[in-house]
């Protein structure tokens, strides 16, 4: 059983992280807001039944993730890029917009299983500790680290492929 004051404060303190997680999965601001509202309502209605002795944040993140995955399954639709990374837009040393690179990252991430996308977002965008990610995705910490490592390796590999295609020198070598 969780007290109303504690629940209100906890929901308020974690709403931004929960929203960003929902947005990273659903890629739609309206759907992310709906998912968050569903989680809030469910928690409020079940406040007398919730038996959490520690790590309420992990519980809320897991509930948010599960609700988002349910929505994706229910609607079975493809979500468009929503601009999660707009704050990171800039120009790199070659004059290529970082925005373009972030669009590629999203495309490459979409090729991976949902758990890889969630782990990557939680660690690299949110900066959430491995222990909390482990509880949220219900996977041992060692597996979370492996998933993140493999996800980064996949991204590097995909960027290397693109760079080889875009580099004029490699085109000349292949033409010979």
From TrEMBL:
Keywords: DNA-binding, Sigma factor, Transcription, Transcription regulation. InterPro entries: RNA_pol_sigma-70-like, RNA_pol_sigma-70_dom, RNA_pol_sigma70_r2, RNA_pol_sigma70_r4_t2, RNA_pol_sigma_r2, RNA_pol_sigma_r3/r4-like, WH-like_DNA-bd_sf. Residues 14-77 form the RNA polymerase sigma-70 region domain. Residues 103-155 form the RNA polymerase sigma factor 70 region 4 type domain. The keyword Transcription applies. It comes from the Bacteria. CDD domains: Sigma70_r4. GO terms for molecular function: DNA binding; sigma factor activity. GO terms for biological process: DNA-templated transcription initiation. Gene3D superfamilies: 1.10.1740.10, Winged helix-like DNA-binding domain superfamily/Winged helix DNA-binding domain. NCBIfam families: sigma70-ECF (TIGR02937). PANTHER family: RNA POLYMERASE ECF-TYPE SIGMA FACTO (PTHR43133), RNA POLYMERASE SIGMA FACTOR HI_1459-RELATED (PTHR43133:SF8). Belongs to the sigma-70 factor family. ECF subfamily. This is Sigma-W factor. It comes from Salinivirga cyanobacteriivorans.
């Amino acid at each position: 059983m969780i007290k109303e004051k504690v629940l209100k404060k906890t929901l308020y303190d974690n709403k931004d992280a929960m929203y960003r997680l929902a947005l990273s999965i659903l890629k739609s601001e309206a759907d992310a807001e709906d998912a968050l509202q569903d989680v809030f309502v469910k928690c409020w209605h079940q406040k007398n039944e919730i038996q959490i002795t520690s790590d309420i944040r992990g519980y809320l993140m897991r509930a948010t993730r599960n609700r988002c995955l349910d929505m994706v399954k229910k609607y079975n639709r493809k979500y468009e890029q929503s601009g999660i990374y707009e704050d990171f837009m800039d120009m790199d040393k070659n004059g290529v917009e970082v925005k373009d690179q972030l669009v590629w990252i999203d495309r490459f991430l979409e090729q991976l299983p949902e758990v890889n996308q969630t782990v990557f977002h939680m660690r690299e965008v949110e900066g959430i500790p491995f222990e909390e990610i482990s509880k949220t995705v219900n996977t041992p910490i060692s597996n979370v680290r492996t998933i993140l490592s493999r996800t980064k390796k996949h991204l590097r590999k995909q960027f290397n492929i693109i760079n080889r295609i875009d580099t004029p020198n490699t085109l000349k070598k292949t033409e010979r």
